[in-house]
Amino acid sequence: MRLNTIKSHLYFLLGALVFFSACQPEEVTDGNGLSDSNVDASFTIESVSGEPNRFVLSANRENVLKFLWNTGDGFYEGAATEELFLPDAGTYSITHQAYGRGGIINETSQDVTVATSDPVAGNLIKGGSFQTQADHDEWTILQISDSGTYWTFNEGSANVVGSGYNQQGIYQAIEVEANKDYTVDMKVFGSGATNTWFEVYVSSTPPVQNQDYSAEGRRMGLSTWDGCANGPFEGKLSNVGCVGSGNTVNFSEDGTVYLVIKSGGENMGSTGISITNVEFRGSVN
Known about the structure:
Layout: H1 2-22, E1 43-48, E2 51-59, E3 66-70, E4 75-78, E5 81-85, E6 90-99, E7 105-114, H2 133-136, E8 140-143, E9 149-154, E10 157-176, E11 182-190, E12 194-203, E13 220-223, E14 233-236, H3 237-240, E15 248-249, E16 255-267, E17 273-282
Antiparallel strand pairs: 1-2, 2-5, 3-4, 3-6, 6-7, 8-10, 9-10, 10-16, 10-17, 11-14, 11-15, 11-17, 12-13, 12-16
């Protein structure tokens, strides 16, 4: 009797398992309500009346849990409605990622064309996208350490690699007006580094070859000791950076200032640190 009872229990459990398995969908997206493979990533772009460099991005809100936008400098988390300021003339690709239930991500992109540059916030940096040899020629290498770290200019970016706690920089002269606010920023990306710094300075003090540069303190940057650039990163330095006194600057006199970008450390990772879309602009309210 005891053996027959055990067998009966086993048959019951086996039958229950078969029934339970038959009732489950093969995928989490198969109508169980836990995910939404059709999450709507579409959005509209509307120009702001009287503001040729400002646009409003509006995405569908229904069943969207998170909105990520990319206007050319990497994705950032935003809202369903975003105001976009594009101070430079050109054509831009805008991408929206919509996150739905179950971690489903859908993505759409649109182009927007800006006819004229903003007269106040037009970029004062020359060759900041590093697309051509002419762009590369706008920059000067600042030699600091004897060897071990160096910058190279590529089609669309500048890249610094190195090891052994050596450092090297690049810089460009800019003409500014007195008592006017300016902002500096750039897109940065890399695979992650160890004991590494990446620093941005803006000062009227000219760089000197074979000397370090720290005039008036770093404005912004990356520092593995302070918690950024330890792993892969990509985005505007103002978003992914973690050190510096701030990327807004003001000068008491008209004249020439220098944007200096320097980097060094123990190990800058397999791809080094790259930059593009370097900008220095008059601030717009």
